[in-house]
Amino acid sequence: MSRRPIRHPKHPLGLFVTGWGLVRDRLDSISSRKVSLKGGQAEVTPALIHRLPPEILAYVFEILSDIYPVLGGTSRQPLFYNNWLVVTRVCGHWRRIAFDHAVLWTVLSPSIIDHPLLCRFWLERSSSKMDDTHDDGPSSNLAYPRGTMPLVVWTDLKATETCMALLMYNIHRIRELKLFFETGRASPNVMISVIQHLQNRDPVPQLQGIDLTSGVDDLPSSSLCWKILSRLLMSASALRTLALSRTWFSWADMGVGALNGLRELRLTSCERVGRTTFSNVVDALHHTPALEYLVLRGVIPSDGSELSHSYPTISLPKLRHLKVDEDGAQGLRLWSLIESHPDAIMDVDAGLTNAQTIIPMASPALAHFQDPHPLSFQIVSNVTVVVYLARDGMPDKHDAKATPQPRSRLKLSLRVYGLDSRDEIRTRDTLRTGLMGALPLHRITHLVTRRDDGHETEADLPPSWMVRLTALERISANCLRPTGIHNLARAICPSPPGDDVSESLPIPAPALQKLTLLHCNFDEDSTTALLDALDQRTDAGR
Fold it and tell me: pTM of the prediction?
């Protein structure tokens, strides 16, 4: 056999080399398989590949199936084009290994579910039990997991009744299920068929993930989706992930058994079944003590009379990621009730019609950040006021090459609707002033300021704020124009040039040690103003 190195990526053996390169470094740790190869670090050739034990071949096939999954074929591209299935065309020996390795056939994508024959083939392969010996003799014994493998299934709007019937018949094997029914194109018959099969099946303790997407403007389809979901929730005792988008659901009827073990909950733009109250939301989240990831967008009831009631704290000690995006005060109210992991990353977006209502709703939640750790702070002002808080010293993944800006622990976006251009600046200032009163400014050691917007408010930090930054050690300014440089100079030393420093206002930020300016635009006046401010701090002993 030729020993010419295989390099062409579209060659079936070339694809194999990709997977082999990922596992060759791990072979030393696979002591139970006692792999012995004479090739060492030599070039990978067909002769070397032919000597690989079957279990190593199967292991490489698994890696290839993750890197090059079967996403589907077209009229011009066959199913095996540019995915791991090409290895089954190399020889009968490889084909038998792949066909008998059940874990390779556990992911059913829409392109497979669209074809009943392919769907049946995948289900048979993933549930096949391997014999102890094969036609090649004892040397081909495989150390495979025996028995029926759990399935990962996702569908699209083209799924046929036949294929859905096959899947529902195997519902007890499905570990992750993603159903997608597009508005106006989903077949009610398909969904009705799913409901009937679910009604007649046993509980599904293997099911760990549900992702259901529909269209709320298509009321019949959406209501059918909720029936599908409710039947799954009644049976899925091991559910870990629940994601719903543009469909119907009910906070009151989600099922305590299904919520107890949830690790991830994502609800986006869903219509609520029946009359759902804010109390139902609080009660449901009380039954998710293991929750680690929570996303709520447009799903919290906005009954204003309930928001003023007293509610118990929602303890979610494992919650590390929170995203709340609601038009109204209900999102801020829910955020104020949640007690999360100390290192949780939060992204809260709220919009109201009255700026005076926002701050009282946000203040209780901001009080959670009164911890002893140094904080980094940034505020961006436009029609929407955005506040970033983070523990100081953590790198910012969005701006790694610029200033050492920390990763946000909190991103709070507040906006007021229905304003004309004359009220925007006044409302923005009201929000900024209210937030400054609620934020723990005495804990901030790093202040980040960027070029703002067209309102000439960049780096606008009034002295009344700066004097409260008693622990501030660093200021990082990015992309400021001359106006911003002037504002920054006034912020670090508000005394006009020539004034007696002893009789001027107290020097703000007394602990300031470092000022970083990146990509800023200076002119002569702004440069002079900044140097004068630094000189005055020096004269004052700062």
Answer: 0.75
